[in-house]
Amino acid sequence: MADIDRILAAAPVIPVLVIDRVEDALPIARALVEGGLPVLEVTMRTPAALDAIRAMKEVEGAIVGAGTVLNPKQFDQAVEAGSEFIVSPGLTETLGRAVQDAPVPLLPGVATAGDIMRALDLGFTRLKFFPAMSSGGIPALKGFSAVFGGVRFCPTGGITLETAPDWLALKAVACVGGSWMVPAGSVDPDAIRERARKAAALRPSA
Ligand code: 3PG
Predict the structure, then answer these.
(1) 127: closest CA among 105, 97, 159?
(2) What is the pLDDT of residue 206?
(3) From ligand 1's centre to the CA of 15, what distance in Å?
(4) What residue's CA is closest to ligand 1, atom 9?
(5) 194 carries an active-site annotation
(6) Which residues, judged by CB distance below 6 Å to any ligand atom, belong to the binding site of ligand 1?
(7) Which of 34, 41, 194, 198 is catalytic?
(8) If you measure from the C-alpha of residue 34 to the centroid of ligand 1, how many angstroms do you get, rounded to a whole number?
(9) Inter-helix orientation angle 72-80/49-56, to 10°
(10) CA 130 to ligand 1: nearest atom
């Protein structure tokens, strides 16, 4: 199984991408990687997602994964398309058990202490804290990390370039996720590259 820690350590920020038009995939991926963000999460929220993953894998240095994966079928489709990691917004027992021997790692979403306990039961210690801001923000994460010592998080949901440093300063935070680098609408590679550069310059605490 590929090492989820290696992926979470590859950049301080994982751009969360909603790709509507497959022809946007390459210019978006190139701009993000050139800007210093190699880890790309393509959400399975659009019909273009799987083709976007295939296209983005052509970009040298890109580590392409799938997000918003809800069940084992979508997990398999995303792996088949070449995803190197998978992210889910929450964790069901069905998904957690189905991926135990999968060739790529799952970063499951959690929002409560009970979610984290279920994730630990299923063997997951690297978790997406989602939706981070509306689930209690930094005070909630501090509470979780006091209790669940070995767990590291990728908080996502409502995080911005301005607030990311506060999250990244926490020891339990490996990196953060966010959509701010690639806003919806027409693709502007220069603007994406510039936002990626600023995000890539942020540093996690350890
Ligand atoms: C996700 O799927 O992780 C979120 O949609 C990203 O959250 P954000 O848009 O608030 O950054």
Answers:
(1) 105
(2) 62
(3) 9
(4) 179
(5) no
(6) 16, 43, 67-68, 130, 156-159, 177-180
(7) 41
(8) 22
(9) 30
(10) 3
Q: How many domains does the chain have?
A: 1
Count helices and strands in the chain by DSSP H and E runs: 9, 8
Q: Is 41 noted as a catalytic residue in this protein?
A: yes
State the pLDDT at residue 1. Answer: 35
Residue 151: domain span: 4-197
* ipTM rounded to 2 decimals: 0.89
Per-residue confidence at 2, pLDDT binned at 50, 70, 90?
very low
pLDDT bin (cut points 50, 70, 90) of residue 89 is very high
Q: What is the CATH number of the domain that holds 117?
A: 3.20.20.70
Q: What angle do CA 102, 175, 85 make, to 5 degrees?
A: 20
Confidence of residue 203 (pLDDT cuts 50, 70, 90): confident
Residue 15: closest CA among 88, 76, 65:
65
In-domain check, residue 205: no
Beta-carbon contacts of residue 146 (< 8 Å; ≥ 6 apart): none
